[in-house]
């Protein structure tokens, strides 16, 4: 069975909304840790699930690599990809995420990259390893990820294995799409209808959006599934979208969402904005007072207000964070005053992603969003496991010069532990053979 039929609808249903106990919970204005302008670049730590489809497609898909599927003692089924490449000694420090000691007289230095996928997390690592002495390469990577021991492992020999894995990665990355509301508040506006009534954007708003994201045309766009009309542009002609450190972020800009002239309650706009867990409020004018109570009956858990100010004729943004009382404090990065420059993009998008990560820790959202992602991902892994296992045309004994005992008579997932060591030994031999053959090929050119 090669086809997958998995429901990818992760929207919170109306029934789930009725279960949610704290729609009316109070909001807290979180104190800014530093209310002075930030003049130094800070590389804030991103705390969010790792999307890997771009990594696999760019660094593995078009190069020789090996894919594996198997089972871990604790985490269950997993998929892994391993790639080896020769590197110069002077380049090691430039490209490694981490390293292990290598003897100076060892000329066979290889950079190995690995992508490991479990039901709950994705991992991306790179190491320098002496392939002549290494027979447990994948085991080393798994230990570095602090995962449990390998219970069973096999090589993916499906003729379209690479394509199926990249489809799997893209499917799961799409579930991580961040949908962020964005509205404007002008002076004397104190309810959602007034804020959603505008159909145009000011230059100040465009300047702000252009530094953190890019305008895109929705028609026929296949980068994401944000539930906007991509065929007829019925909802919007354009919207704003960005990819930051492989994370996709879609902005629902209130003034760009279509609204019928006879719709004085802006139902379409409210439907999009009120169902975002995080909403950006861009403030224009003097003496603007914001209260989350301006918005009624929505799922929004955090509002981030952005107010442009000028200091010594230079543009800055004052960032304030309103969160529901049952949401953990947001401290990294904090609110404050930040200069309008390229470093602001790194700060603000990190703030968005880290905030979304904290929101999803809340019991209700963890149950209805995160656990559903885990379930769908595991179902997909099981489907791939069945597809890869049933496809058996690749004789491993040929690759290992008949020194490998190709014993793959398995009927279920409870395989013997002896299989693990056999496949890891073969893996080391296979990479060593590949490296030696490649070196000979280069020397003959």
Q: Ends: how far apart?
A: 44 Å
Strand content: 15-25%
Structural class: alpha+beta
- Number of distinct helices: 12
Q: Give the domain tally.
A: 2
Order of helices and strands: HEEHEEHEEHEHEHHEEEHEEEEHHHH
Radius of gyration: 26 Å
GO molecular function, one term: GTPase activator activity
Keywords: GTPase activation
Protein name: Rap-GAP domain-containing protein
Give me some keywords for this one.
445 residues, alpha+beta, Rossmann fold, Arylsulfatase, C-terminal domain, 2 domains, 10-stranded mixed β-sheet, 5-stranded antiparallel β-sheet, 31% helix, disordered N terminus
Write the layout of secondary structure elements.
Layout: H1 14-19, E1 27-30, E2 34-38, H2 53-59, E3 66-72, E4 76-86, H3 92-95, E5 109-118, E6 122-130, H4 137-144, E7 150-155, H5 161-174, E8 178-186, H6 192-195, H7 203-212, E9 214-217, E10 238-244, E11 247-253, H8 267-274, E12 278-284, E13 302-311, E14 314-324, E15 336-339, H9 342-359, H10 363-390, H11 396-399, H12 418-443
Parallel strand pairs: 2-15, 8-11, 8-12, 12-13
Antiparallel strand pairs: 1-14, 3-4, 3-7, 4-5, 5-6, 9-10, 10-11, 13-14, 14-15
Helix pairs in contact: 2-5, 5-10
């Amino acid at each position: 069975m090669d086809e997958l039929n998995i429901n990818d609808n992760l929207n919170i249903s109306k029934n789930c909304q009725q279960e949610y106990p704290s729609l009316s919970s109070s909001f807290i204005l979180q104190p800014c840790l530093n209310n002075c302008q930030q003049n130094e670049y800070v590389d804030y730590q991103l705390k969010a699930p790792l999307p890997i489809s771009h990594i696999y497609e760019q660094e593995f898909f078009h190069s020789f690599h090996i894919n594996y599927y198997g089972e871990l003692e604790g985490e269950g089924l997993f998929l892994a990809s391993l790639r080896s490449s020769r590197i110069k000694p002077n380049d090691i420090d430039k490209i490694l995420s981490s390293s292990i000691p290598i003897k100076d007289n060892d000329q066979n230095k290889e950079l190995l990259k690995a992508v490991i996928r479990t039901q709950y997390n994705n991992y991306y690592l790179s190491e320098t390893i002496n392939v002549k002495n290494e027979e447990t390469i994948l085991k080393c990577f798994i230990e570095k990820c602090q995962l449990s021991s390998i219970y069973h492992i096999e090589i993916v020999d499906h003729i379209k294995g690479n394509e199926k894995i990249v489809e799997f990665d893209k499917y799961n990355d799409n579930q991580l799409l961040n949908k962020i509301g964005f509205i404007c508040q002008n002076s004397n506006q104190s309810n959602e209808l007034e804020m959603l009534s505008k159909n145009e954007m000011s230059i100040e708003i465009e300047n702000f959006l252009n530094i953190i994201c890019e305008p895109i045309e929705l028609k026929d766009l296949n980068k994401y599934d944000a539930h906007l009309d991509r065929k007829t542009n019925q909802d919007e002609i354009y919207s704003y979208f960005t990819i930051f450190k492989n994370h996709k972020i879609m902005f629902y800009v209130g003034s760009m969402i279509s609204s019928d002239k006879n719709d004085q309650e802006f139902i379409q706009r409210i439907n999009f904005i009120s169902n975002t867990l995080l909403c950006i409020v861009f403030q224009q004018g003097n003496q603007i007072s914001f209260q989350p109570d301006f918005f009624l009956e929505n799922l929004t858990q955090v509002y981030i207000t952005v107010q442009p100010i000028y200091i010594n004729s230079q543009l800055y943004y004052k960032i304030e964070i309103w969160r529901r009382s049952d949401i953990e404090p947001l401290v990294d990065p904090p609110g404050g005053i930040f200069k309008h420059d390229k470093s602001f993009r790194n700060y603000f998008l990190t703030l968005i992603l880290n905030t979304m990560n904290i929101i999803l820790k809340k019991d209700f959202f963890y149950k209805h969003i995160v656990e559903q992602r885990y379930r769908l991902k595991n179902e997909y892994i099981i489907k791939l496991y069945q597809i890869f296992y049933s496809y058996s045309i690749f004789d491993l004994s040929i690759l290992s010069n008949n020194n490998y005992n190709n014993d793959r008579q398995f009927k279920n997932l409870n395989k013997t532990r002896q299989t693990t060591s056999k496949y890891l030994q073969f893996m080391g031999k296979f990479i060593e053979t590949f490296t030696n053959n490649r070196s000979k090929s280069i020397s003959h050119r």
